[in-house]
Write a structure and sequence with these properties.
alpha+beta; Arc Repressor Mutant, subunit A; SH3 type barrels
Length: about 350
Amino acid sequence: MATKKQQNRKSTRSGERAGNTRPPMERMLLIHQAIQGHTLPNATTLGRMTGVSPKTIRRDLDFMRDRMDLPIGYDAIAHGYFYTEDVGSFPTMQITEGELFALLVAEKALQQYRGTTFEKPLVSAFKKMADSLPDTVSVNLQEWDQSISFRTSAVPLLDLETFDVLAKATSRKQQLEIHYRKPGSGASEPRVVDPYQLANVNGEWFLFAYDHLRKDLRTFVPTRIQRLRPTGKSFERPKRFSIDTRLRDSFGVISGGRPQEIVIRFSPFAAEFIREKKWHPSQKLKELGGGEIELQLKLSSLIEVQRWVLGWGGNATVIQPPELAQRIKEEARKILNNHK
């Protein structure tokens, strides 16, 4: 027949296995409060109080002593733990209401990565931060949750298996063989690439990789990769590679030759929207009479800014360069011909 002590130990272990325990940081806060109360608690009484085994309590105490620098001592005569010097507040993570609000906004923004290879580590990170918060933090998260939302249209149709292989190969510096279909091409072609970086630019994913066929850095769209496999080789990413430098003179992800000055004039209606955003690091705004505005940019490619200007319809006029103005005219003629 089991003794009462054995029954209590068995009950504690079963409760611990069933998950009826507090998060580790909350448990250590209770241990701190018990020691702070000068009652000389031991591992058994602390385990009974927090619903875990004495062995778990000893691990918590080791962590508190070694990682949190708390001055924990043990009284061999009274068989209990105490602080060898005065301890103020428990060294848990301190967070303000504003910081918590910012975390909520970030979590909302990260919802676009649901289902991707990033979902699991993101959820784990947020859970760890939540578990480490002190009980004294009291805010109405429900009100915030109902006040903020993110909505993204035209979400890229990512193949999660492909994305997972790309992400792992990029982080592990593993060379890949991909079968890539370029726009306008019916068939894909094999490429051997060194994946330098996966980047989300304006809500879309791009792979920046060294293309061994082209002998140069190229930008690939993951949704156009039809097949891929690791070659078994590794590579070293050049120290000079920088995604910020790569995209410095682009309006999105396309870079060209030498940067040239772009000047676009906007009608009073469109000017209201232009003033509200930072469209490019190089931008300069010049106020004109009658509510019009001029946007000046320095870009190395005209492809993406051309599409952007066309989206403003008759509310945007290209002042320079002449090449961009001519492209806009040609596209406008095509639009007219298609809508006769």
